[in-house]
Amino acid sequence: MEGSDQSRKSILDIRSLRQQVYEYLRGLNQEGKLVPGSFINLNEISQQLGISKTPLRDAIMQMECEGFVTILPRRGVLVNRLSLEEIQNILEIIGALESTVVRSVSDRLTTDHLDNMQQLNEDMRACIRENSSGTFDIQYYQLNIAFHNVFLDLSTNTALKHMLMIMKQRLYDFPRLNYIKEWERINCDEHDQFIQLLRDGKKDDAARLWRINHWGFECHEKWIREFYAQGERKIQHDLELLN
Fold it and tell me: How many Å apart are CA 77 and CA 67, to the nearest integer?
């Protein structure tokens, strides 16, 4: 019992209980322990964390507002799946928002910022070369996020940045099975083009590249369909195991 209490304390710390529960559930989602298309066992989670259902319901309501789950009356809490149409819509929104940020912060991007982005991109390429397994690479993922954050962090629009974070989490929480090297190389090539346009002072061209090419569904449709089709097969397999 004492060990169990200590384990729960390591999960639930000094932050608000609702926020802690939310982050715990999001962690389960990222780890693939909440299978899209399945229902969340609220009783089991409540017992695991040693909490009442009130903060759990509050956290679930936040997740529903952000699109991760759907609360179905008299049925339970369903972990949402991503349709191809939803993926296309999310990419379009992210592209529009990030390109807006590019235009608004371009005057504040220094040579140091651009050099930092270049180094992060080279580190991403190194990850691609060294990844022989073809599985999801957490280091590559973190470097990619860091690359985007170099210019996003210059924005003072906190609401916009929060929206971007949630939408990217919707995309990145999808089962992380595959690692399509050719697609990731194209991603790095676009990063290079983006950096060069910013070095040349062509912020409108950089923003256009970012919106139409980098986040454009049509430009990467082949890879997007392959990536998410593999994820869907993993989801179907996990659902069959649950049933």
Answer: 12
Q: Does residue 226 have a pLDDT over 60?
A: yes
Q: Residue 218 carries which DSSP code?
A: G
* Paired residues of 70 in beta bridges: 78
Contacts of 128 (CB under 8 A, 6+ apart): 140, 181, 184, 185, 188
Supply the pTM of this predicted model: 0.84
The domain that contains 210 carries what CATH number?
Answer: 1.20.120.530
Distance CA 230, CA 187 (A): 19
Indicate the number of domains in the chain.
2
Decide if 194 contacts 101 (C-beta within 8 A).
no
Domain enclosing residue 40, as ranges: 2-80
**160, 151 contact by CB (below 8 A):** no
If asked whether residues 151 and 37 sit together in one domain, one would say no
CATH of the domain at 33: 1.10.10.10
Q: Are 56 and 45 in contact (CB under 8 A)?
A: yes
Query: What amino acid occupies position 197?
Result: L
CA dist., res. 210 & res. 69, Å (int) = 29
Q: Are residues 102 and 66 in the same domain?
A: no
Q: What tens digit of pLDDT does each residue of 118-147 get?
A: 999 999 999 999 887 656 678 888 999 999
